[in-house]
Design goal:
The protein has 176 residues and is of the alpha/beta class. The protein contains six helices and eight strands. Strands 1, 2, 3, 4, 5, 6, 7 and 8 form an eight-stranded mixed β-sheet that branches. Helix 2 (23-28) links the parallel strand 1 (13-17) and strand 2. The longest helix has 12 residues, at 118-129. It is globular and about 40 Å long. The two termini are 29 Å apart.
Length: 176
Amino acid sequence: MYELIRPIVKNKTVLELATGTGLIAKNIVNAAAHIEATDASTEMIAEAKRDNRSAKLHFSVQDMFCLPYADKSFNVVIVSNALHIVPQPEKAIAEIKRVLKDDGVLIAPTFTHAENSFTGMVRAFFMRMAGFPLHSKWTSEEYLRFLRQNVWAVRKSVVLKASFPLTYTECVKSEV
């Protein structure tokens, strides 16, 4: 996935939401101009800060539904593996649209659990037990429809095989 993301963030100002321990941000920071990596969890951000070695990468605790950034602040917004676990993904998408520049790119890879096997359902159960409830269970097609219904134009979509199918998407603001 990093190989897909790096060319998009090259020399750009990036916001990553739901960064967790900062794995994506740390793996792409050399390509970006600057990354603001945020998470709602104080514990996750503390862990992410522990081995941050880049002056171009800043971690902070933020609420993805109410971001402290000005309108049109970022060239790229990344929200990876989070939209399916937040209670109102359309509200998060609207806030992303606000902070993303008009010509910016949303990178939103998300696990698409709905078409999964019995093994996948067992894994989803253990994710819920670990504190990651699945508020949205989408197939890849349903997820892409959700993005389009929330006024995003999907310019690239690839289903990556992992423990769960992961639908990698790159979107731009739609005129509709």
